[in-house]
Amino acid sequence: MPSSPTPTIDFRPIPMTVIIVDDDSINTALHSALVKKLGYQAISFTDPHKALDWCVSNTPELLITDYMMPGMNGVEFAYQFRKVANHSTVPIIMVTATNHPQLLLDAFAMGVSNLLNKPLNVMEFMDCVAQVTCSKNL
């Protein structure tokens, strides 16, 4: 009597989705590669308006955004992102070359979780992403 095939069950978790917004495609490629190395799914945008359009029907587990972008800076993007339903608790990491004290105040007022400086320290970036995503799952 032939035996029936044993069903296989895939217990691998669905990777967390990280959205990356930066007008510089080299930066989006770097951030995407680092996020993927941590096992997360990366979705990148070089246009913050298109990123917001995507966010209307999708909820990422983490947002990484640049500060200086044409048309909408990172603080403005964070503000608009927070207005979208179900996005009030999504962690936001902002990357910037600016070290103006007011930026820090404005970013945190808009709900930015962490601010990283350029040039990007790869280990600091990966540690920050891992910490933010791990604390979100607690």
CATH level 1 class label: Alpha Beta
Query: Main beta sheet, described?
Result: 5 strands, parallel
Structural category is alpha/beta
* CATH architectural category: 3-Layer(aba) Sandwich
Mean pLDDT: 90
Q: CATH topology, anyone?
A: Rossmann fold
How large a portion of the residues is in β-strands, by DSSP E?
15-25%
User: Are there runs of 5+ residues with pLDDT below 50, and where?
Assistant: none
The helix fraction, in percent, is 40-55%
SSE ordering: EHEHEHEHEH
- The strand order across the widest sheet is 2-1-3-4-5
Name the overall outline. Answer: globular
Number of domains: 1
Cα radius of gyration in angstroms: 17 Å
**Which superfamily, in CATH terms, is the homologous superfamily?**
Response regulator
Describe the structure.
This protein has five helices and five strands. It is an alpha/beta fold. It has a single domain, classed as Response regulator (Rossmann fold). Strands 2-1-3-4-5 form a five-stranded parallel beta sheet, sandwiched between helices. Helix 4 links the parallel strand 4 and strand 5.
State the main characteristics.
single chain, 138 residues, alpha/beta, Rossmann fold, 5-stranded parallel beta sheet, 5 strands, 41% helix
In short:
With about 140 residues, the chain is of the alpha/beta class.
Summarize the helices and strands and which ones pair or pack.
Elements: E1 17-21, H1 25-37, E2 41-45, H2 48-57, E3 62-66, H3 74-83, E4 92-96, H4 101-109, E5 114-117, H5 122-136
Parallel strand pairs: 1-2, 1-3, 3-4, 4-5
